[in-house]
Amino acid sequence: MLTIDELTKRFGDKTAVDRANITVAKPAMIGIIGRSGAGKSTLLRMLNRLSDPTTGNIVFDGEDVTSLRGAAKRDWQSRCAMIFQQFNLVPRMDVVSNVLHGTLNKRSTFATMFNLYPKSDIHKAIEILDRLGIAEQAPKRAEALSGGQQQRVAIARALMQDPKIILADEPIASLDPMNAQVVMQSLRTIHEEDGRMVIANLHTLDTARRYCDRVIGMRDGRIVFDGTPAQLTTGVARDIYGAGADFSEAATSTEIETLDRSNAAKAIA
Amino acid sequence: MADVSLGGAPQNVAGIQSSYMAQVQRRRLYGGLTLLILVVLMVSGFNVADDRNAGGFWEGLHQIGDYPADVVSEAWAKRADLPGLIAKYFPALVETINIAAVSTLIGALAGLILSLLSTRGLAKWPRLIPLFRRFSDIMRAVPEIVIALVLIFVLGGGPVPAMIAIAIHTAGALGKLFSEVAENADLKPVEGLASTGATWSQRMLLGVLPQVAPNYVSYALLRFEINIRASAILGFVGAGGLGYELRNAMAWGPGRFDEAAAIFILLFGTIVFFDQLSSHYRNRLTEGQAQ
User: Fold this and answer.
1) What CATH number was assigned to the domain covering residues A2-268?
2) Which residues of A touch B14 (CB under 8 A)?
3) What is the 3-state secondary structure (H, E, C) of B150-183?
4) What was the ipTM of the complex prediction?
C-alpha cells in the first residue's frame, strides 16, 4: 500500500533523514519514536509533500508521490491529511470554518472567498465534530478553545479531507496528560472504525506502546527499529534514545498512572 | 473543560447544524450586501468624478499615451545629446539627494525621540503621551508640499525650505512607525537597567535601542527612498533640485523634451539604485549577515 524507498533529506551538509525504508501492506496505526532532531518530523513532512526529499521515492498504491507537481501534488495532500503539534488552525475563524478547510482542495478560491460551502459539507463538518465530542463548540472561534479541543478540531479538519492516510506530527506534545489521552484515543478510534492508516510521531514510549500496532524507532535520521510494541524492550528503547542505564520509561511518560507510580516510588525511597 | 467521552453529545446535532446554518446564511447575506454597496459606491463615485472632470474620462482616455510618446520620440531623435544632458543635470540630482538625506537624518532623530516619548511603558512622562502622539499626528497630517510652500514664501526659494518641510513630515511618520516597534520591545532589560539606577536616557539608549535598531534603520532607509521622491516633487514648487529643472523642461513644451527625458532617466535610475541599496541593507539587518 505504502512504500518508502531510500528516502533521504539533506539540509546543507546535515542529513535529517538518511535512506529510510518503510513498507506498509495494510492500514495500520504506526508510531514513530525517537528523540528531538531524529528526523521524525522531516519524514512526515516529506510524506505530505510539505517539503521535497533530496533523493528516494514514496509510492502509494502504485503511484509515485514524490514526482507529483502542482495540482496533482495538492490532490495528494488532500488524500494525506496532516495534524500538527501546534494545531495550525486559523485562530480567528470559527471551528466549523476551520473544519471546512479540509475541503479546500475541491473548492475554487472564489467560492472560498465568499464562504460558499455546500450545505451538505457544513452538516458533515458538524457531524465529525460531534463524533469527536466537540459539536457544541461549532460556532466559537478556534482561538477560544482549549489545547485539547483545538487539536480535536485539527483532527476533524483532517477527517473532512476523507484521507487514506492521517499523519500526526507530535499531536499530543503540547497537551496535558488528560487531553493527550483523548486525542490519542480519537486517532485510534478513527483507525479502527474507518480503516484509515495513521502515522504518528510520538515522543513518549508508553503512548506508542499503548496505541500503536507497529513502532518505528529513528535515531540521527536512520531507522534503527521497526517492529511490534512487544518487541520494543527497554534495551531497544535505550538504543533509540541513545540513553544510558539510568533511562526509565517513566522519564518519557505523559501517562497519569506512570507518573503516579514514579512519584510513589520516590515517596517510598 | 476537557471531556473524555468520545461522541457523547449533550446537545443534539441537528439543532447545532440548523443554528450554524442560520448563522452562515446571515453572514452570506451581510457579505452580499457589503459587496453590493461597494459596487454601487464605486460606480456612482466614478460617475461623479467623470462628470466633474473638465475633459471627460472616456474622451481623454485614448490620448493618455500622447505626451509620453512625444517625449520618447523627440528624445530618441536627439539621443546623441542625452549623455551630455544627463551630465548637465547631475548636480541638480545631487542637490535632490542631499535634501532627502539631510531631512531623513533630522527627521529620524526627531522621530526617535518622539516615539520613545509616546510609547506606553517607555515614556518619560506617561501623562504626556497623548500630547506627543497628537504632535506627531499633526506633523504627519500636513502635506509636505503645504509646509514647503509656506516656508518658501517666508524664506524664499531653495533647498532649505524643502529640507525642513520633508524633515517635519518624516519625523511625524517615523515617530509613529518607531513607536509601534518600541511597543513590542522587551521591557526586562529596561527594568534591569532601572534597578542599577540608570537615568531615562541611559535606559532608552542601552535597554531599548539595541533591540529595535534593526527595525528602526530599516524604516529609516525606506523613508529615505520616499524622501528622494518627495524632494524631487518639491522642486516643482521652487525648492530647487531635479524637480525644478523637470518643471522647466516640461513647461517649455516641445523642443525641450530631450531634457525632460534626461531628467526622467536620472530620477528613475536614482530611485532604482537607492531602492536596491536599501533593500540590500534592510535584508542584512533583518536576517543577519550572510555566513
Assistant:
1) 3.40.50.300
2) none
3) HHHHHHCCCHHHHHHHHHHHHHHHHHHHHHHHHH
4) 0.71
